[in-house]
Amino acid sequence: MKLSHRFLLLFVVLFTSSILFSQGYKDTLTNKSIIELRKNNLGVDIIKMKITKSFCAFDLSVDGLIQLKKNGISDEIITSMLTYQTGGENSANIVNSNQGNRFASNQTSSNSSNDSKTSEKNNLKSTRPGIYYCIGSAPELIQLETSVFSRTKSGSGLATGYTQGIAKKKEKSLLNGSSSSFQIEEKSPVFRFYFGEGRDDFATSANFAWFSSASNPNEFLLIRFDVKNGTREIITGSSNLYSGSSTGVDNSNRVAFKFQKIEEGVYKIFFDKPLPKGEYCFMYAGGTNASTAIINKVYDFSIK
To answer: Which of 8, 38, 229, 270 qualifies as a FRET site for 200, CA 20 to 30 Å off?
Structure first.
């Protein structure tokens, strides 16, 4: 009789622990969840990031893996599933030390607030300054990294010569590679700009001297690159004999966006129309002059 009571007690402890462990995460991911995310055109990097921040109850048996491949799940995603498995049919019943630390961290975060609105408010305050891609209504935030223009290029000047200085000579800035490493597979993405509690926070975090005066998304441009010969390029200036030189991004490269203020220093960026497939970047444009008009760092991304 005592033995059966011990088994019952052990079962209750393990069952309760598994529930508490899973509550440390916002979502529980399964094979079906991953297949649905992929069918809805979320990129590989985004799905991998989601896996690292969720409770994972995958079926990673031979049959489960075969089913994933049949549904078009890449080896890269499956590898991430195997790495971050935290529960389910083929996981160990005992949580290892790394998972335990992860659980403790999530429990601490979860216990800080039981109210979703309070939690969202805390997230707004604690998020580091930067530009983020948003997933879902909560939302899940993935930070865009910066890229540096590798070089500038001038036109040959032949047209200017043939037209005795009337035709314009164009100046271009180039990014290496024909596509960004940050791939987005939805056509109407949502972004957030976090400027921090003080405007200088954005400048410090991004190491951009010209961010020191930025206060809202009106001071940024969304640019669509022209892709040529394995590089991404934009027109950043022009000159001719009669009108002189001008600097700034050509209107043909600019893309309109809208924004909504969420709270002080936090803005939601969205679009009226879906973005065409292509290469894009956010670029700071406020307060530029002749010496700083060609910006050397941008937040680039691809729409697939």
So the answer is: 270
